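notes to self, project folder thing:

trying the whole complex as one job this time. last attempt i did each chain seperately and stitching them together was a nightmare. two parts in total, labels are on each line so i dont mix them up again. if this works i'll redo the older ones the same way
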Amino acid sequence: MIELDSSLIIIDRAPYGYEDAFSGFYICIACLNKEVDSDVLLLGDGVYSALKNQDSENALNFPSVEDLTYLIFPEGSLFVHEKSLKERGFMAKDLVEAAELINEQELYEILISKTKKTAFLRI
Amino acid sequence: MENNSKKMLTIVLTEGPYRSQYADIAYEIASSALYKKYRVNIFLYMDATHIPKKEQNPHSFPNVAQKFRKLMKQGAKIRACVRCATARGHSCTQKSYIPGITITSIYELAEWIKKSHRVISLGD
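result (full assembly):
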């Protein structure tokens, strides 16, 4: 059996209403810092984390999840599930620069490409 | 029994005690892995940092802190995220945790992931 060398952080909750998005990005940032190849996958309400022009500092007095997306880029990828995004009325132009839209087939290929050496963490 | 002594299992737990069964599930998985001679790490993240608090007195459920203490006696390493723990009032100076729990940074989880053969995340 081999040790792990990558991680995929799966976030499916919206930021601010829950701590999960922040915490997921923090794990990804720490992994990248320790040279563990890491990406974030946003599904369901998790796609809200990738919207640009978030104003949480003024509106909620919360740090911005949008800022965290730039801390994983370009070493890590920020995958955004296209179907989840469209279901919520948003398009690619609404997303931060680091976001990479993926359709069902691409999601499948990403998951398949991850080998037994990947830690999958749903946060 | 298969020799698993060089294999490492890391469990990332994100839910607190009692409201859900995740802490108990983590305990069962960790116990089984220790029995099979795995090295076991448990990283307590977000509300899971409440789990090792001292002086819990649940009337209807088994005391989850005591379960985790048992795991440590069997060799498991248990760490609590410093950001999450301090946000919830658990600090190193107040010694609010049962003995053996270390409060540490998220970077230790990253190190554990790198050294692990399996990682399981548990939480709602």
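what i see at first glance: The CA atoms of residues 80 and 95 of chain A lie 9 Å apart.
need to look closer tmrw
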